[in-house]
């Protein structure tokens, strides 16, 4: 394991500006994340775990530079993601692969898979044979046949859509792979398929892999370290063995209890 930090967050406060009342023009800052301190090292496989509304997607958007922190410092691969010039933005975008939360809403229904996979490469100035090579490699990583290039998203099953999104995140060979609830929209059998594909990708490409989930078993399959987010704060950060054997925060205990509860016959 490397000791080079790829994500460094210090004393972060972040949230959204929300209208104070119905039809109000005045927007008030509503914090979602508070006192976040987090370091993720190169090659680590971590899971950010928390219930709905805990701020998981917001934390990812901070790493992607889509939200500006209200307070604190954020560094991703040495860049300050929310305040980059166009050229630097492209350089950082090349290094991060992002699979957003809801597969069916994340794919443009009017574009064939071919365009979905080529577009991010073209945006980075990669075309021709090199682009084709990257697209074919990415399809291979997610076990999809080249025939899907001619499909529209509505011709794909949920699992295939998710695989296309993973392939799209891989086309530019990212150093960091960020997955927001990669299995939550899928049936259990398909969840296992996606988990296996992601673990294969990790073994082959060794990216820093950050998975967001509300599901402890999924987190355990996809990560070595758990970061527990509760109501916008990191309440625990440890290996799965540690948090299962000795959970410190009451929320972690609830998570672990519900997970290990025996199933009634
Ligand atoms: N664009 C936005 N404007 C205002 N509030 C928002 C916005 N996006 C999220 N929120 C609020 O911020 C809080 C955290 O949202 P976030 O999406 O980060 O949670 P999450 O942990 O990803 O939840 P889920 O598991 O449901 O995806 C929620 O209360 C949500 O309503
Ligand atoms: Mg979310």
How would you concisely characterize the structure shown here?
InterPro entries: AAA+_ATPase, ABC_transp_ATP-bind, ABC_transporter-like_ATP-bd, ABC_transporter-like_CS, Oligopep_ABC_C, P-loop_NTPase. The chain is α/β, with parallel strands linked by helices. It contains ten helices and nine strands.
Descriptive notes:
The protein starts with a strand and ends in a 5-residue tail after the last helix. It is built from ten helices and nine strands. The protein is 38% helix and 26% strand. The strands form two sheets. It has a six-stranded mixed β-sheet, sandwiched between helices. The chain has a single domain, classed as Rossmann fold, CATH 3.40.50. The protein binds adenosine-5'-triphosphate (ATP) and magnesium ion. Magnesium ion is lined by residues 56-57, 101, 180. InterPro entries: AAA+_ATPase, ABC_transp_ATP-bind, ABC_transporter-like_ATP-bd, ABC_transporter-like_CS, Oligopep_ABC_C, P-loop_NTPase. GO terms for molecular function: ATP binding; ATP hydrolysis activity. This is ABC transporter related.
Please specify the SSE layout and strand pairing:
Layout: E1 5-19, E2 27-41, E3 45-49, H1 56-63, E4 71-76, H2 86-95, E5 96-99, H3 103-106, H4 113-123, H5 128-141, H6 158-170, E6 176-180, H7 188-205, E7 208-213, H8 216-222, E8 225-230, E9 233-239, H9 240-245, H10 250-260
Parallel strand pairs: 3-7, 3-8, 5-6, 6-7
Antiparallel strand pairs: 1-2, 1-4, 8-9
Protein name: ABC transporter related
Domain ABC transporter: 7-256
InterPro entries: AAA+_ATPase, ABC_transp_ATP-bind, ABC_transporter-like_ATP-bd, ABC_transporter-like_CS, Oligopep_ABC_C, P-loop_NTPase
